[in-house]
Write a structure and sequence with these properties.
The complex is a heterodimer of chains A (112) and B (110). With 112 residues, chain A is mainly β. In chain A, 0% of the residues lie in helices and 55% in strands. Chain B starts with a strand and ends with a strand. Classes of the chains: A mainly beta (112), B mainly beta (110).
């Protein structure tokens, strides 16, 4: 199994641009999580899905952030418009029936 | 302050020594998990201990859980340079929400 796959690995964009981060969970996993990691705030849960349905999006910081999971094998996290304070490493993780999380290697986002 | 606070923030030891990291939390939990993160990589699950368990072993790892004190410890025995990483505890609360602490940076010197 290739594990959780995230793309791109690095993204550099200018303030105001739209950013889309992508995630392919492990096949057969039914839960998907988006986390953001910064030095100041650590790991923050943004949103998680169960069977493709958003369950808890209370961690999504603002309306500029949106996440979708159109099917069991793909999810996106979109930021529009992006701001410098969105700079962070964004992780996607998946799990099966609340078993431990399997993380991707993250997308390092830099907004200038 | 957030759930799953680790202590110490940083730990530097010599190869062969044991490393102990502690985690405290505030609310009732379903389970507590420890993860490891190497620089530039995602987190990797190490061990899970349920709220009705007190101790668990996995290879050189030993985890304890004291629900009365709302604390856990992770012991790595006979440390190796390859154990150098950040270690995070995470607590699962109701609704399957997993909340991570800020981590302990462990450095094992050869």
């Amino acid at each position: 199994d290739a594990g959780v796959i995230q793309s791109p690995r690095h993204e550099v964009t200018e303030m105001g641009q739209e950013v889309t981060l992508r995630c392919k969970p492990i096949s057969g996993h039914n839960s998907l999580f988006w986390y953001r990691q910064t030095m100041m705030r650590g790991l923050e849960l943004l949103i998680y899905f169960n069977n493709n349905v958003p369950i808890d999006d209370s961690g999504m910081p603002e309306d500029r952030f949106s996440a979708k999971m159109p099917n069991a094998s793909f999810s996106t996290l979109k930021i529009q418009p992006s701001e410098p304070r969105d700079s962070a490493v964004y992780f996607c993780a998946s799990s099966l029936h609340n078993s431990p999380l399997h993380f991707g290697n993250g997308t390092r986002l830099t907004v200038t | 302050s957030q759930q799953g606070e680790e202590d110490p923030q940083a730990l530097s030891i010599q190869e062969g020594e044991n490393a102990t990291m502690n985690c405290s939390y505030k609310t009732s939990i379903n389970n507590l998990q420890w993860y490891r993160q190497n620089s530039g990589r995602g987190l990797v699950h190490l061990i899970l201990i349920r709220s009705n368990e007190r101790e668990k072993h996995s290879g050189r790892l030993r985890v304890t859980l004291d629900t009365s004190k709302k604390s856990s410890s992770l012991l790595i025995t006979a440390s190796r340079a390859a154990d150098t990483a950040s270690y995070f505890c995470a607590v699962e609360t109701s609704g399957s929400r997993l909340t991570f602490g800020e981590g302990t940076q462990l450095t094992v010197n050869p």
